[in-house]
Design a protein that fits this description.
By secondary structure, this protein is an alpha/beta fold. The protein folds into 3 domains: about 5-100, Nucleotidyltransferase, domain 5 (2-Layer Sandwich), CATH 3.30.420; about 115-205; about 215-325, no CATH class. The chain contains 14 helices and 7 strands. It has helices at about 35-45, 55-65, 75-80, 90-100, 115-145, 155-165, 165-170, 175-205, 210-215, 220-230, 240-245, 270-290, 295-300, 305-325, and strands at about 5-10, 15-20, 25-30, 50, 70-75, 250-255, 260-265. The strands form 2 sheets. The protein has a 5-stranded mixed beta sheet. A hairpin with a 6-residue loop joins strand 2 and strand 3.
Length: about 350
């Protein structure tokens, strides 16, 4: 018996669905509200529901899967070529339905509630760090206007500011000095909030077996491990380690015509936050590790430091995918079996 495929275009309040009835061959393109959609799918025979991987898509994927349907998520870039005429909810639903049935189409793995929670904590931490950096830079600039310079570095600069408060107070107008004190206390509050989020991420890292196995890879710390496991979702959704590296934008951009292929810089596609964590971890291995592998030493001899860092980040991502997809533990001296010719 054929499985009905539904193309579902979601938004905050309006939900458009396109499908073809198996028995009659009739086209259907209906609009629902949230409750009507849940009730409709609950009464329908189990089928395949395709959604665009946008806001709330992972929540809907879990909700629809609980009703017995199979859910697939598609990247918006793969749907756009199938939008006919003007862009409306109805045409978007039909485009999703059409894209989901293309041979070789790649899908986004739905995330669990726990994985989404961890990614939310990472986003909150990232915003707090950005806010703290802005506050510290403004504090430096305001002090510099009155002839006060601080040491380079956030921790060293703030420590020097606190140690020399009496001397700085003599150089500053009372009104401004009072305001700067409030700003310093706000920075301390941001530090406490960041540490609290990091403790919550650390608890999940210790509890999640996948995070512990990934964290054993050199260059992957607690933050990178939790972000990597939560972002990947189902590791088997990627056919190979290179596909994961391409998903993270860590592979060269390819352009070619007439049989000639040119390689450029990395594509920088996908999650920029996770790519940044991996590259920073790779730099830590290249500059601070006392036990760099022979592969790292060879790359450093042949390529510039930045290229070597990206190459190592690519290797770390591939290793993480292999560890997760094959349910293994990291082994520094592991050598994969090459297929026989």
């Amino acid at each position: 018996m054929a499985t009905t495929t539904y193309g579902l275009d979601i938004s905050k309040r309006v939900f458009q669905m396109y499908w073809i009835e198996d028995e009659t061959g009739e086209f259907a393109n209906r609009r629902f509200n949230k409750q009507q959609l849940i009730e409709f799918l609950g009464l329908r025979q189990t089928g395949r529901v395709a959604l665009e991987a946008c806001g709330s898509a992972h929540w809907w994927a879990r909700k629809i899967a609980a009703l017995g349907h199979t859910v697939v998520l598609l990247h918006a870039r793969f749907i756009r070529p199938f939008v006919q005429n003007n862009k409306t909810d109805a045409t978007d639903a039909r485009a999703i339905w059409t894209a989901a049935q293309q041979p070789g189409m790649r899908f986004v793995a739905p995330k669990t509630e726990e994985q989404q929670t961890m990614l939310a904590l990472h986003r909150m931490r990232s915003l707090l760090i950005k806010s703290r950096t802005m506050q510290v830079n403004q504090l430096r600039g305001l002090l510099y206007e009155f002839g006060v310079t601080l040491k380079a570095g956030r921790v060293a600069g703030l420590t020097e500011f606190r140690e020399h408060l009496p001397q700085i107070e003599e150089l500053m107008p009372p009104t401004l000095f009072c305001a700067l004190g409030d700003q310093l206390r706000h920075i301390s509050m941001l530090d406490d909030e960041i540490k609290k989020l990091e403790r919550q991420l650390g608890v999940w890292r210790r509890q999640e077996d996948a995070c512990r196995r990934v964290a054993a890879i050199p260059g992957i710390g607690p933050l990178t491990a939790t972000a990597l496991v939560a972002t990947i979702g189902d590791p088997t959704a990627f056919k190979s380690g290179r596909e994961l590296a391409a998903y993270l934008g860590l592979v060269p951009r390819q352009t070619g015509t007439g049989g000639k292929i040119r390689l450029g810089g990395i594509t920088k596609r996908g999650d920029s936050y996770l790519r940044m964590l991996l590259i920073h971890g790779a730099r830590a291995v290249l500059f601070k590790s006392r036990r760099k592998t022979a592969w790292c030493e060879q790359v450093l001899q042949r390529r510039p430091v930045n290229v070597a860092a990206v190459a190592l980040a690519n290797k770390m991502a591939r290793t993480a995918r292999a560890v997760l997809a094959h349910n293994r533990t990291y082994q520094a001296d592991y050598e994969g079996l090459k297929p026989s010719m």
